[in-house]
């Protein structure tokens, strides 16, 4: 993976907004990414459907999937080792824990993007339950269908996934759609937008 | 049963793809009741296999939320599988919930869920297969439950990824050692990958254990084709790899995701064939979930988690301040210990309760295997049971009564046992006397089915000041015991008791003992002279090939030169400005050190007001103006916290410079990044923080309020779904007439939500909260 590509996103997560990057932080990021390469166990599970599973036949998924020829449900994760590492760093080196956490988020996204590119060219971005007014409770349908416990991913009663660095998403086939802020529940309070930035890279499909 | 381990046994194949082919959807377990004919027809299509597994992968009380009673589904699942007319194994899958410490399901809750399954089915099935586990700890809970609640054979398989680790980081060797220790009938790998990709894992498994190996691969890796996920590996190729696996010594074969009756029909040609003979040499191995240690050469057992003679540890154990123990554990790991001894023997403690609590806490953060050290058999069992992996037990001795109590525990959990070469008559004065006891221990262990490689012998150190002539007996006993083919241990530092310059005697004795074949010194790994002696011995004995470890440890070594020492007065001049700079740049250790020096000639409050507060204020301003960022803010807070710790040591005992703050991530939420940052920042501002952790129920917060009477309670939630838990916690606090101010924070919160759920304040980050507290409580 090309670390320099995900560096801006890591700075973004760390709260660096449009100012000069620091050498010290650069060093911390580089060493955290190296540690992630050793610790993370990226794993993915997906299933494609010509017809969308029932739970997607409602807004906002309907609108998101309009004009697509099929749908992919996917779960990607960095595995439990990263959670363990983060927890330990909170005891021994809090500042590094903060950097590692930001790096892991960006690393998972990049890994997931990389793997999605192997699935085909004409795909929408990953729409995750919770986006655009959808409910995180819809995760339960994805879990029923994919059974991601096979790759060590679990869903709690309050609908968070563990390991912490895990994403579950809905991807439309046959159409290219980029991410926007439209419908985001954080929109009225978004810290990124206050600074004229976005939480995602607008280059991304 | 089917001559397991002698003749090849064939399991059935994938179930999901068959359900799909028949157009059956919904919760697969419920289909046992709603569509029994269809389920039976799938089972019948696999009657070419020797063993049929039930359609019950998700059937346990944690995971199953279907329409029927668990017991009804389980019984019907067995009936359906019987339709194939073959041996029937009950399929047991993971709970689908993450176990503690990463998740919220306890080991005992997971155990209960699996035990319930065994209780329902033990009289109607022929065996169990626990499969597709990715967490070694959950797999241990499952195997223990199945074995303790039934007497049927138990097979167990884990899933691995292409890096040959389970998703929680266990290697094939670790999984094999743990499952062998727990006494499963067959162990191996299922699902995960295709047969080709599984080969490296299979090779490592067959070289790790003599227990029969079971492999159930997927039909290759799935590919996306015309909007559908399909498996494309052909029957011929699948069969070809299965044959290779059998050549490597695998005993039991079958298929997982994507495999169909066609695949099983083909590989059933191997059913009843001779299993290839293999012999794996037995080694003395202990392991955690992530680290495996073979006791060979010299391995260091860290002795510092033992309250004998350690006041701070004693106090930490009594006040349940297990964070202190975790820090001690991590320091020993960092210093090069290979495993850690845990002893919680204090008269005022219930060892049976404290031991598992400490074991769980230590293994949450520390990767090393553990040695459970107690003279109380019940405490040993409670500890060993909750170890994630295979521990060492310290100890038995030559007394029949002790062996009769401890050996059954060691056998059941697969632990290695350390035997002390003494008995009710005390420590024999001669090497031969101790050798005789060692033989007795080994032979008695064999009566309990414990093999020699699971035994280690401590030939016992005597103090040179009291029994000078006996020191050489200890060493001679090491040599004699070594001839029995068991590994040896010694608590080396006892030798110097009562004499001056103890470190010199300790490391000299250690070198002598290693030369006599000592495998596991139990010592303080923070003593660099001792660990250094072990590294040097590695070079001189030839164990450390090409001196690699030694060179790695000492490549930057420079002897201390006297001219490098700056005079004390020169240092003092620099301190005032540099403590300020240290806090600002987040140099934690330096800040504490410099603060101590400052405190030599300034009173604590002057140091706080003139240096620490000023530095923090500047850091705060830089952060707010966007010139410093979260990692730097956190570093500075950590440095200030370390300096405050030094200040605290110089304050009068009853002084509490600022008030108490109780922090918790609410019930249902395990995200504690934000809360941890708040903790360190508030501590750096001088507040005393009581951190209740994550997933904290409302009652626990109310209890903490009543116990600590804090000025502020801070609640954190990351998810929209857990804000509900926050609201309930606030309601419970209000009902208990809480007078503390309630602060809330977390990604999904804002001032409106905070008001709606009844909180007093919302702050968007840690610094804002610290500043608001200073404003609200100026007199503190």
Structural features, described:
The complex is a heterodimer of chains A (205) and B (780). Chain A is α+β, with helices and mostly antiparallel strands. Chain A has a single domain, classed as NADH Oxidase. Chain A is 40% helix and 15% strand. Chain A has helices spanning 3-13, 23-39, 61-65, 80-92, 94-117, 139-146, 191-194, and strands at residues 43-49, 70-77, 129-132, 154-155, 161-162, 166-173. In chain A, strands 1-2-6 form a 3-stranded antiparallel sheet, sandwiched between helices. Chain A has a two-stranded antiparallel ribbon with strand order 4-5. In chain A, β4 and β5 (161-162) form a beta hairpin. Chain B is of the alpha/beta class and 780 residues long. Chain B has 4 domains: 9-270, Homocysteine-binding-like domain (TIM Barrel, Alpha-Beta Barrel); 285-543, Alpha-Beta Barrel (TIM Barrel), CATH 3.20.20.20; 568-650, Methionine synthase domain (Methyltransferase, Methionine Synthase (B12-binding Domains), Chain A, domain 1); 660-776, 3-Layer(aba) Sandwich (Rossmann fold), CATH 3.40.50.280. Chain B is built from 29 helices and 25 strands. Chain B has an 8-stranded parallel sheet. In chain B, strands 13-14-15-16-17-18-19-20 form an 8-stranded parallel barrel, surrounded by 6 helices. A 5-stranded parallel sheet of chain B has the order 22-21-23-24-25, with helices on both faces. The longest helix of chain B has 21 residues, at 604-624. The model of chain B has no long low-confidence stretch (mean pLDDT 92). The chains are: A alpha+beta (205), B alpha/beta (780).
A few lines on this structure:
The complex is a heterodimer of chains A (205) and B (780). Chain A is of the alpha+beta class.
């Amino acid at each position: 993976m090309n670390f320099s590509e995900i560096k801006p996103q890591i700075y973004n997560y760390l709260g660096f907004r449009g100012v000069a990057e620091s050498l010290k932080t650069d060093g911390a990021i580089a060493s955290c990414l190296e540690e992630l390469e050793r610790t993370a166990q990226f794993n993915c599970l997906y299933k494609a459907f010509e017809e969308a599973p029932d739970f997607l036949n409602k807004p906002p998924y309907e609108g998101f999937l309009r004009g697509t020829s099929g749908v992919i449900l996917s779960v990607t994760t960095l595995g439990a080792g990263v959670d363990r590492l983060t927890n330990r760093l909170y005891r021994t080196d809090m500042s590094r824990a903060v950097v590692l956490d930001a790096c892991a988020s960006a690393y998972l996204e990049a890994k997931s993007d990389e793997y999605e590119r192997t699935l085909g060219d004409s795909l929408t971005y990953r729409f995750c339950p919770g986006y655009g007014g959808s409910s995180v409770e819809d995760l339960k349908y994805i879990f029923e269908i994919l059974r991601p416990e096979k790759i060590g991913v679990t869903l709690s009663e309050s609908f968070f996934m563990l390991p912490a660095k895990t994403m579950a998403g809905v991807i439309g086939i046959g159409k290219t759609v980029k991410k926007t802020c439209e419908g985001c529940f954080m929109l009225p309070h978004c810290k990124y937008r206050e600074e004229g930035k976005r939480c995602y890279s607008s280059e991304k499909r | 049963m089917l001559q397991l381990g002698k003749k090849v046994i064939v399991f059935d194949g994938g179930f999901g793809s068959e359900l799909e082919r028949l157009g059956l959807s919904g919760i697969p377990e419920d289909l046992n009741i709603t569509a029994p004919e269809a389920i039976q027809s799938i089972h019948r299509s696999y009657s070419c296999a020797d063993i049929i597994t039930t359609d019950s992968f998700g059937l346990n009380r944690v995971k199953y939320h279907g329409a029927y009673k668990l017991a009804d589904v389980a019984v019907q699942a067995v009936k359906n599988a019987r339709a194939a007319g073959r041996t029937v194994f009950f399929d047991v899958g993971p709970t689908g919930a993450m176990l503690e410490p990463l998740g919220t399901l306890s080991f005992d809750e997971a155990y209960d869920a699996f035990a319930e399954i065994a209780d329902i089915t033990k009289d109607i099935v022929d065996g169990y297969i626990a499969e597709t586990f990715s967490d070694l700890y959950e797999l241990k809970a499952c195997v223990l439950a199945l074995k303790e609640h039934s007497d049927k054979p138990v097979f167990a398989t884990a899933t691995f990824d292409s890096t040959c680790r389970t998703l929680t980081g266990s290697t094939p060797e670790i999984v094999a050692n743990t499952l062998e220790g727990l006494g499963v009938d067959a162990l191996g790998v299922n699902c995960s990958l295709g047969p080709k990709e599984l080969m490296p894992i299979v090779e490592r498994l067959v070289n790790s254990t003599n227990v029969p190996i079971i492999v159930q691969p997927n039909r290759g890796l799935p590919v996306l084709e015309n909007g559908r996920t399909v498996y494309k590996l052909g029957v011929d190729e699948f069969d070809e790899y299965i044959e290779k696996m059998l050549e490597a010594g695998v005993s039991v074969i079958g298929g997982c995701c994507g495999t169909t009756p066609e695949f099983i029909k083909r590989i059933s040609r191997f059913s009843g064939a001779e299993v290839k003979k293999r012999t794996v040499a037995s080694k003395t191995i202990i392991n955690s979930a992530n680290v495996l240690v073979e006791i060979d050469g010299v391995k260091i057992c860290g002795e510092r988690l033992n309250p004998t003679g350690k006041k701070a540890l004693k106090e930490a154990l009594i006040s349940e301040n297990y964070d202190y123990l975790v820090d001690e554990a991590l320091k020993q790991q960092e210093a090069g210990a290979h495993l850690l001894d845990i002893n919680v023997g204090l008269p005022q403690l219930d060892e049976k309760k404290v031991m598992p609590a400490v074991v769980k806490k230590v293994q949450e953060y520390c990767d090393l295997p553990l040695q459970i050290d107690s003279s109380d058999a019940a405490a040993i069992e409670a500890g060993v049971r909750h170890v994630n992996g295979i521990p060492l037990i310290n100890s038995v001795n030559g007394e029949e009564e002790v062996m009769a109590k401890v050996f059954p525990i060691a056998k059941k959990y697969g632990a290695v046992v350390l035997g002390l070469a003494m008995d009710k008559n005390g420590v024999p004065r001669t090497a031969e006397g101790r050798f005789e006891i060692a033989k007795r221990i080994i032979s008695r262990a064999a009566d309990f089915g414990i093999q020699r490689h699971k035994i280690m012998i401590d030939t016992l150190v005597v103090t040179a000041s009291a029994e000078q002539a006996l020191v050489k007996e200890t060493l001679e006993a090491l040599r004699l015991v070594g001839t029995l083919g068991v590994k040896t241990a010694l608590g080396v530092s006892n030798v110097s008791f009562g004499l001056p310059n103890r470190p010199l005697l300790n490391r000299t004795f250690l070198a002598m003992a290693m030369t006599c074949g000592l495998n596991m010194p139990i010592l303080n790994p923070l003593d660099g002279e001792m660990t250094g002696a072990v590294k040097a011995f590695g070079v001189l004995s030839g164990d450390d090939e090409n001196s690699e470890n030694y060179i790695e440890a000492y490549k930057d070594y420079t002897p201390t030169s006297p001219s490098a020492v700056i005079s004390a007065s020169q240092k003092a001049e620099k301190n005032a400005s540099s403590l300020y700079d240290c806090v600002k740049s987040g140099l934690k250790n330096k800040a504490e050190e410099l603060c101590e020096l400052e405190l030599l000639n300034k009173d604590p409050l002057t140091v706080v007001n003139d240096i620490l507060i000023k530095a923090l204020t500047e850091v705060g301003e830089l952060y707010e103006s966007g010139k410093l960022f979260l990692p730097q803010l956190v570093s500075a807070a950590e440095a200030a916290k370390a300096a405050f710790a030094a200040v605290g040591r110089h304050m009068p005992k009853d002084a509490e410079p600022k008030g108490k703050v109780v922090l918790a991530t609410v019930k249902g939420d395990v995200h504690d990044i934000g809360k941890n940052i708040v903790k360190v920042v508030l501590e750096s501002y001088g507040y005393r923080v009581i951190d209740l952790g994550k997933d904290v129920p409302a009652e626990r917060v109310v209890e903490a309020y009543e116990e600590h009477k804090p000025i502020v309670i801070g609640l954190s939630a990351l998810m929209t779904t857990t804000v509900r838990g926050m609201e309930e916690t606030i309601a419970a606090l209000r009902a208990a007439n809480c007078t503390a101010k309630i602060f809330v924070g977390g990604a999904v919160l804002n001032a409106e939500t905070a008001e709606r759920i009844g909180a007093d304040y919302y702050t968007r980050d840690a610094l804002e909260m610290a500043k608001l507290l200073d404003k609200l409580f100026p007199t503190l």
